[in-house]
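How a chain folds remains the central question behind the approach discussed here. The record that follows shows the chain in one-letter code together with its fold in token form:
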Amino acid sequence: MTIRLITVDMDQTFLRADKTYDKDRFRKLFSAFEDRGGVFAVASGNAYYNLDHYFEADILPKIYFCGDDGNFIIKDQKKLAELSLDPDLVDRLIRFLSQYENTHQVIASTGDRTFATPSDDPFVKEKMSIYYFQSEYYERVEDYPREGVNRMTLLGKFSLEENKAIMDEINRAFPELEAVTPGDQWINIYDRRGGKGSAIAYLQEAYQIKAEESIAFGDSLNDRSMMSEVKYSCAMDNADPELFESCTYRIGNNEDQAVLDVMEQILTEPDMSFMEAYRI
């Protein structure tokens, strides 16, 4: 069955470690996929303002951006869907997160805005300059606006295993929420009904696309929810090993632009028989 929906994570999946990708090659593949009526979506833990600059101006309006782990969907500068947390829940979560000794930053996101506290720590300043460079700063986390927050993020000098342990503690304390880790140092928390999988489901319903016509690529545990929404669930070779358990296929790595390799095969071999070579 022909693929009609392609969804990609960005960091360590679509992008190389230096935040680049083969733009010329992607342009050709994207144009060919669009000509066939295909839908292309970016599902990322990043805020929207840290996603759109990767794509050229003529392509940008044609891409669905599912930022904040899929909880804020936008296309051509138009907000299409969002899933916000109850303000009282945000308040309880802020108090809960304050217990972690290695916490360096608690960030709140609304999709198009992010809130943070000032820090002189070089570690925090570097991370914020890369991922949250348009943040609005408040002296105390308790002063953050509560309305419209769709995700909370914990930034700390945690190892991946420490991240996963904290993630489990949050999930036990807040059964209505989903805590996920996109990798070392970060934990993202949002409504359990949300996540990247909910963004894929939104697009599938909007375009009447079946799971059998959908493919997704990711590398971290915050990609896990979208893998259950597609037939062709692809983990990068450089992925968190736990993600392999949720995927049917394992492709090459991000440095070699493996996502573009598979996109090219989708266009030249639309029956998808080539995917057997990637089966886990």
